[in-house]
Amino acid sequence: MAEAATEEVKVCYRAHVAGKGWMEWNCNGQFAGTVGENRAIEAMDIQVWGRGYFCADAHIRNVGWQAPYGDCVASGQVKRVGTVGQALPMEAVRITLSYGSLEGIGHVQDIGWIGPFRGDHITVGTTGQGKNLELVTLKVIG
């Protein structure tokens, strides 16, 4: 788990990547995942500090959005989205902050870089196209 002072505004995250497992924690605009290896993100752990609570959800290939999206966690807690050990690729991740804004950028199989997406509710990735989400970068912008 990443560590941050309680007054600091920060988002940290790590990706569970097909064939590699859990990658290192990254924060505020750093990359989580891979590019050019054709490896899907299967799960993510996400932490946000200094923004009350946040909600997160993953769109899983052949499953859809996980439920319930309203399953939110308090600032500093870890929210896991996606699956581990089931070989189910994530196609998108969506995050909502109780206040403030995020910026998210992604890299998607056969599409390339997408974004930036900005707001208090963002979705990074695609749905219904059967394309793996391969890399995500997130940062708090307001």
From TrEMBL:
Pfam families: ChW. It comes from the Bacteria. InterPro entries: ChW. This is Clostridial hydrophobic W. It comes from Streptomyces agglomeratus. The lineage of its organism: Bacteria, Bacillati, Actinomycetota, Actinomycetes, Kitasatosporales.
